[in-house]
Design a protein that fits this description.
Shape: elongated
Radius of gyration: 45 Å
Mean pLDDT: 79
Structural class: alpha+beta
Helix content: 25-40%
Number of helices: 4
Number of strands: 11
Strand content: 25-35%
Order of helices and strands: HHHEEEEHEEEEEEE
Length: about 250
């Protein structure tokens, strides 16, 4: 009689033997050396980190230089626009003074001695002496008080010939003015304002028939040429402006 073979059944836990595979997978046997190798493969070397930091530093420096250049260009542009607006405002005042010119026959209505231009203008309160001058590359404007008497007008005219440049009534209009020239339009041509002018006969009284005195005839136009030396944030070159004078009532 044949003896039956007995088969031993091992527990389920014993049947699931670990599979030797790659380190880190389920059921793999991972020792200290394997874990160190895996960590080394997943990270960066010191040289790679230093190269990355160097590239980031170079890019940051280039970006900073670009931003700084944009900021400087914007600042220079704003200063140029502000200076242009100021020049236009000053020239508007210059034209306003000339267009309000008034010839009284008591003092010269318009004169230029090479450094200072003096004129008499009408205002709402009377007559006013105005002096434009160039001192130390600055364009200055002085205004006397508005007067209604002949003696006060003569005194204001004398004061305008003794200006030092530090008077309280003298305003600094423009800076950086290296040259200033003035021309008068007489006889269908522009001529130097310091040249001899045409002479017109003036009777002593409106009822007089013969002239007893003479005075310079006013021009019909005034040309000013402003020369700027340039520099940081300053204009460069020449600026010319012509002003047509209003006709004077006899």
């Amino acid at each position: 009689m044949t003896t039956p073979r007995l088969t031993s059944f091992a527990p389920s836990s014993a049947r699931r033997r670990p599979l030797h595979g790659r380190c880190g997978t389920r059921g793999s046997a991972c020792g200290p050396a394997d874990r160190a190798l895996r960590c080394h493969q997943c990270g960066f070397t010191l040289v790679e980190v230093l190269v990355a930091l160097t590239l980031m530093a170079v890019l940051a420096g280039m970006a900073w230089q670009g931003l700084a250049g944009i900021a400087l260009a914007r600042t220079a542009s704003d200063e140029r626009v502000e200076l242009t607006l100021r020049v236009n405002t000053v020239l508007a005042q210059w034209e306003q003074d000339l267009q309000a010119l008034h010839d009284t026959g008591v003092v010269p209505a318009l004169t230029f001695d090479g450094a200072t231009l003096r004129l008499v203008r009408r205002t709402g309160d009377g007559l006013q002496v105005v002096a434009w001058s160039q001192r130390e590359q600055r364009w200055l404007r002085w205004t006397g008080p508005a007067v209604t008497q002949v003696s006060a007008l003569q005194e204001s005219w004398l004061v305008s010939q003794q200006l030092l440049g530090n008077e309280a009534a003298q305003l600094r209009m423009l800076d950086g003015l290296s040259d200033w020239q003035v021309y008068f339009y007489r006889g269908n041509a522009w001529s130097n304002a310091q040249s001899s002018a045409d002479v017109a006969a003036v009777p002593a009284t409106p009822a007089a028939s013969a002239p007893v005195s003479a005075r310079s005839q006013l021009p019909t136009g005034v040309r000013t040429v402003l020369g700027f030396g340039g520099g940081a944030g300053a204009l460069a070159g020449n600026l010319t402006r012509d002003v047509l004078l209003a006709p004077q009532m006899p």
